[in-house]
Each structure stands twice: as C-alpha cells, then as structure tokens.
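Blinded run. Sample ID left blank on purpose so nobody reads anything into the name before looking at the predicted structure. Input follows.
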Amino acid sequence: MFDPTAFENMKVVVEGAVYEHDFYGDITVTNRQDLVNLAHLSRQFIMEMELKAPLSDTAVVGVVSLGANLENLSAELLPNQSPFNEGSTITVALRMARQLEGIQGGQLLTIIEGIWGSDRHIELINCTYRDNKNSPLTYTTECKISFGRLIKEEQMDDLTDMLDTLIESLKKTDGFLKTAT
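Blinded prediction complete.
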C-alpha cells in the first residue's frame, strides 16, 4: 500500500467541499477534470461551478484549480529532496460571457480585492473570439486569483474556507453584473 501525496489529499478535500455545497443547494457543479500530463509529469484537478439561483442573465462560472508538477511530487516522494517544493499550487477564477473593460473592469477588481485581500495576485483578462468567420464575436472576461506560493498539506483546512470565499465571490460578481449596464 502507498501513502497518497499531498496533492491527492488536497484534491479529496476540495472535491468533497465542492460537492457538499452542491448537495446543500448553493452551487451546481458544471465540470470536473482530473488530469495527468505524462509529458511534464504533472497533475491538475479542476472543478467548475455556477450559482444555483443567479440574479443576473450572465452566467458566472467559478473555477478552482489544484496543480502539482514534477518538483512538487518528487520533493515528497523521493528521499533527500528539498521539502520547500512539497505541496500544490491553487488558483481560483471567475469566468463570464461578458466583456468588462474600463470602469466596469476596475469596479469588479475592487469587489474581488475586497473579498480576497490586496496581497493576492488578481488578474482581469478580456477575450474576444469567433468560432469561424461566419459566426458572431464572443466576449468573455476571466478574473483569476493566485496566491504566489505553494499550499502545504498542513494548510488543508484553508481549502474549505477558500471555497466559501469563491462562492461569496460568485454571489457578489453575479450581483454586480445584474446592476452593471
């Protein structure tokens, strides 16, 4: 029998917390990916969710992404490795099929920074694309929150708090989109 890695343990905690919120009616899980990249020897776990009862017409998708690369996994599994690389990266994001630029983009960043704090790296990404030359343009905005450090197994309790904060962000972004013109 083998001991699961920190990534595996954190994945179970995140997945359980997300499905618990789905069960109690806060959110609906819309996508789940458990990926192994054999070329880079890395793992990634992604869950996407939406509010069950949104206020605005624009769907806001919350994303939590947990990742571990070769350095993270080897630091934990191989002897004589530096323990500084043990752990996983985590990123959360909010995606919407609406482009927020200028004042609206700044207002959303202020809302998200008020929720997550100013010590997080918060990035607002606008994208315009078209499936083919005959299809209409599609506009999207993604607000990505990263933490700039590895999450260790000892911080596993913070993962459920992080999910609560992501759901709060979904609700406040949804409310903002309802009032934004």
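Unblinding after everyone has recorded impressions. The beta strands are 27-37, 42-51, 60-68, 89-96, 121-129, 138-146.
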